Amino acid sequence: MMFPFVDTEDEEDIQEEQYIPREYGINFKTGQLSGKIVEGYDAILVWAWLALHTPRYRYYIYSEDYGQEYEELIGKSYSAELTDSELERMTEECLMENPYITGIENFSCTKNDEKVTVSFSLITTLGDGEVSTNV
After folding, report:
1. Tens digit of pLDDT for each residue in 39-60?
2. In angstroms, how far is CA 99 from the centroid of its own chain?
3. Farthest-apart Cα atoms in the chain, separation
4. Which of 46, 81, 89, 126 is least surrounded, with the fewest CB atoms within 10 Å of its CB?
5. Phi and psi (nearest 5°) for 17?
6. Residue 126 CA from chain centroid, whole number
7. Which residues contact 14 (CB under 8 A, 6 or more apart)?
């Protein structure tokens, strides 16, 4: 063997392990840091909240895959059905960038004055739960 330090093991034999995600905790009502570190499903909730509150393509620090595109719906005279459908598509597209999130179910949105609240069941590899947030 010419290079003994080169690992000749097939890449297919190596199984990638997912680590337990960790994030800084957030108070979801105020958007302020809680001062605690959260792990597992709670960290996924923090990631989802941040992604749903970050416009895609606005900040150079984030990749083009991170964030949501809700601003494309502002000022459009789409029907309520089309708007709701687009909100669901955009929400799912935003969240599916996370490898722990496998989908969303039971999506609904409620419009109050100038705010829209989206609610859905978040399905992850670390657990499932209900999410509701203003967008």
Report:
1. 999 999 999 999 999 999 888 8
2. 10
3. 71
4. 81
5. -95, 135
6. 14
7. none
